[in-house]
Amino acid sequence: MKISLHKKYTEYAIIIILILFAIFSRNILAYLTGSNVPLAVVEGYSMCPTLRQGDLIIAYKPSPEDIHVGDIIIYKDYRGTLIIHRVIEVLRRGNKYYYITKGDNNPYRDPMDVPYERVEGKIITINNNIVIKIPYLGYLSLWSHGMGHAF
Predict the structure, then answer these.
(1) pTM across the whole model
(2) Same structural domain for residues 20 and 54?
(3) Whether residue 50 is found in the same domain as residue 107
(4) Does the pLDDT of residue 20 top 80, yes or no?
(5) In this structure, is residue 99 part of a structural domain?
(6) What are the tens digits of pLDDT across the range 80-108?
């Protein structure tokens, strides 16, 4: 009887630890990366073939001068929707930075210049060309929360 009771308490403890980890992992990642959106799920096909729908990506918040042409950033448009696109030009107007972005699979650039204040993060890459992503894992979030969701 004691062994099964001990086993049951151990199982409950593991479940509680996993729930706490799930609740606080986003906050921990946000603190470590400086980004309000440390994990994001790709929705849509504008960044194919680099990023595909359902990819889970990791981002951090760089300083404005550390965002360069070729970087992939996450930003909020004027409706508050998160967009994940590549920087094709960096502009500096006075002390402010702006980024012109475009989806890799889109024929035209995005309609707005993105001010640094709207940048939520820069996608983590290896040697500036290999994106760190977990394919398909983001589908869990898309299915459970509906489309257009970031962690």
Answers:
(1) 0.77
(2) no
(3) yes
(4) no
(5) yes
(6) 999 999 999 999 999 999 999 999 999 99
Distance CA 24, CA 117 (A): 25
Containing H/E element for 76? strand 72-76
CATH number of the CATH domain containing 70 = 2.10.109.10
Residue 27 domain boundaries: 1-33
- Spatial contact of 30 and 38, defined as CB atoms under 8 Å apart: yes
Polymer length in residues for the chain: 151
Task: Please check whether residue 151 lies inside any domain of the structure.
Answer: no
List the beta bridge partners of residue 41: 56
Residue with tokens 């030009």: 89
Q: How far apart are CA 1 and CA 96, in angstroms?
A: 68
Give the per-residue pLDDT at 145: 59
Is residue 59 within 8 A of residue 85, CB to CB? The reply is no
In a domain, 150, yes or no: no
The total of structural domains in the chain comes to 2
Band (pLDDT 50/70/90 cuts) for residue 8 is: confident
Structure tokens given for 11: 């199982």
What helix, strand, coil percent values describe the chain, rounded to 5? 30, 30, 40
Q: 23 with 38, same domain?
A: no
